[in-house]
Write a structure and sequence with these properties.
Helix content is 33%, strand content 24%. With 294 residues, the chain is of the alpha+beta class. The longest helix has 17 residues.
Length: 294
């Protein structure tokens, strides 16, 4: 990845205030937004650069690291640790100590990351940068395990989406992050699932919930009602004198339990009794007779 001068990308000075940075970002974001520049690769790249610059400079902690370490700001903590370690290991003369103190950051990082550092200092291997990605799916997509190919940083990664994965859940794919500097191990890829509920069911982990309407006669006298489950329709027997809000449980008709093949939660049905409207004169007469009997 080429080095990007974040201040230059936003067109602000290094002494710019947070307000000035925000204002510059908004102006440039409007100018280079993909919606306003369709199929313009130059604008698309510029939009990415200003977003990256704003993400770093709008965060006071990251900006402080960037101001101190420049392009190596992400490795600032590792630099300090390595520096302390080298100080402890030095048993030679004060001159050697002074030489190390006099090194600029670019020389020191060059020696750590495999560049030409004049042979000074011991090389250090660091883990590559972790990548983060978001995968948007529907609830119906995660009822069964399936394979899917993702493209992350230009690389295709084929993975299995486990049945029962939850909204907001994050899984780690080891070694699919950034390349480790100086022969270090690769970073990891963290995928966050964003699952939209495209069904009439309410989900709570592996249990599902739904509401089924009953007419008054069926609720009073009993009968049958057809209800939807996640995999199809089933008929249920309704007990006489079923009350409004009564619940029944359909065991094993819920959602798959994550990483527990063949195991499912339950489906809970809540009955909602619909009161009759637009009664005929005969119906009113019958209800009046029923009221007298009660």
């Amino acid at each position: 990845m080429n080095y990007i001068d974040y201040y230059k990308a936003l067109g602000v000075s290094k002494t710019a205030t947070q307000s000035e940075i925000k204002k510059a970002y908004r102006k440039l974001a409007r100018k280079y937004h993909p919606d306003l520049n369709p199929n313009d690769k130059v604008s698309e790249q510029k939009f990415k650069e200003i977003n990256e610059a704003h993400e770093v400079l709008s965060n006071p902690e990251n900006r402080k690291k960037y101001d101190k370490y420049g392009k190596d700001w992400k490795h600032g903590e590792e630099f300090e640790k390595a520096r302390q370690q080298q100080r402890q290991q030095q048993t030679n003369s004060q001159q050697e100590y002074s030489q190390f103190e006099g090194e600029d950051f670019s020389d020191f990082f060059s020696s750590m990351f495999g560049g030409t550092g004049g042979g000074r200092g011991r090389q250090h291997n660091f883990k590559g940068q972790d990548f983060n990605a978001e995968l948007k799916l529907n609830l119906t997509d995660v009822y069964e395990s399936h394979k899917q190919t993702l493209t992350v940083n230009g690389k295709n990664i084929r993975l299995t989406i486990p049945a029962g994965v939850e909204n907001g859940q994050v899984i780690k794919i080891k070694g699919h992050g950034g390349k480790g500097p100086n022969g270090g191990t690769n970073g990891d890829l963290f995928i966050k699932f964003s699952i939209a509920n495209n069904t009439d069911f309410k989900r709570d982990k592996s249990n599902l919930y739904s509401t089924v309407d009953l007419d008054l006669c069926t609720a009073l006298l009993g009968g049958e009602v057809t209800v939807k489950t996640f995999t199809g329709k089933v008929k249920l027997k309704v007990k006489p004198e079923t009350q409004n809000g009564a619940k029944v449980k359909l065991k094993g008709k819920g959602f798959p339990v994550y990483k527990n093949k063949g195991k499912y939660g339950d489906l809970y049905i809540t009955y909602n009794i619909n009161m009759p409207t637009n009664l005929s004169s005969k119906e009113k007469e019958l209800f009046n007779e029923l009221a007298k009997l009660r």
